[in-house]
């Protein structure tokens, strides 16, 4: 159970970083690493907890799908540095920054 709490703390710190850091290009570089790192850590924790191989494979596939959707959906504003779409549901990315209304690019 301790691993799970550690993982949740790491995820929360990561999200906080993406909300606080205003450097869009740095966040754009860090975000995929963060997402796949979290997924990888989650699967490792599950295997520590004795999850069967089928569960691990299923979680890996779901986790990669979630990571890819998030990476596509979350945008970083070059104008003001905001993170847009981190807590948004759905798969389509925002076209404009929610803070400064500047158009967003990938
Ligand atoms: Zn903006």
Q: What can you see in these coordinates?
A:
With 106 residues, this protein is mainly alpha-helical. It has one domain (2-84). It has helices spanning 2-20, 24-48, 53-73, and strands at 75-76, 83-84. Strands 1-2 form a two-stranded antiparallel sheet. A hairpin with a 6-residue loop joins strand 1 and strand 2. Bound molecules: zinc ion (ZN). Zinc ion is lined by residues 77, 79-80, 82, 97, 99-100, 102. Residues 77, 79-80, 82, 97, 99-100, 102 line the site of zinc ion.
List the helices and strands and how they pair.
Blueprint (H helix, E strand, L loop, with lengths): L1 H19 L3 H25 L4 H21 L1 E2 L6 E2 L22
Antiparallel strand pairs: 1-2
Helix pairs in contact: 1-2, 2-3
Zinc ion binds next to loops.
Would you summarize the structure shown here?
With 106 residues, this protein is mainly α. 61% of the residues lie in helices and 4% in strands. It has 3 helices and 2 strands, in the order H-H-H-E-E.
User: Hey, roughly how much beta strand do the residues contain?
Assistant: under 5%
Q: What's the alpha carbon Rg, rounded to whole Å?
A: 15 Å
- Characterize the quaternary organization of these chains: single chain
Number of strands: 2
Distinct bound molecules: zinc ion
How many helices in DSSP terms? 3
Largest sheet data: 2 strands, antiparallel
Kindly, what is the distance between the CA atoms of the first and last residues, rounded to a whole number of angstroms? 37 Å
Helix and strand succession?
Answer: HHHEE
Overall residue-averaged pLDDT value: 93
Judging from the principal axes of the Cα atoms, what is the shape?
A: elongated
The stretches of 5 or more residues where confidence is low (pLDDT under 50) are: none
Our count of domains comes out at 1
* Strand order, largest beta sheet: 1-2
The helix fraction, in percent, is 55-70%
Structural class, from helix and strand content?
A: mainly alpha
């Amino acid at each position: 159970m301790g691993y799970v709490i550690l993982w949740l703390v790491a995820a929360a710190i990561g999200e906080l970083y993406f909300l606080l850091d205003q450097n869009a290009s740095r966040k754009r570089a860090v975000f995929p690493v963060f997402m796949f790192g979290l997924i990888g850590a989650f699967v490792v924790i599950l295997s520590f907890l004795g999850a069967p191989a089928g569960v691990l494979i299923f979680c890996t596939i779901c986790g990669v799908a979630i990571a890819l959707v998030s990476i596509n959906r979350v945008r970083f504003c070059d104008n003001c540095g905001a993170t847009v779409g981190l807590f948004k549901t759905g798969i389509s990315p925002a076209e404009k920054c929610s803070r400064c209304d500047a158009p967003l690019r990938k």
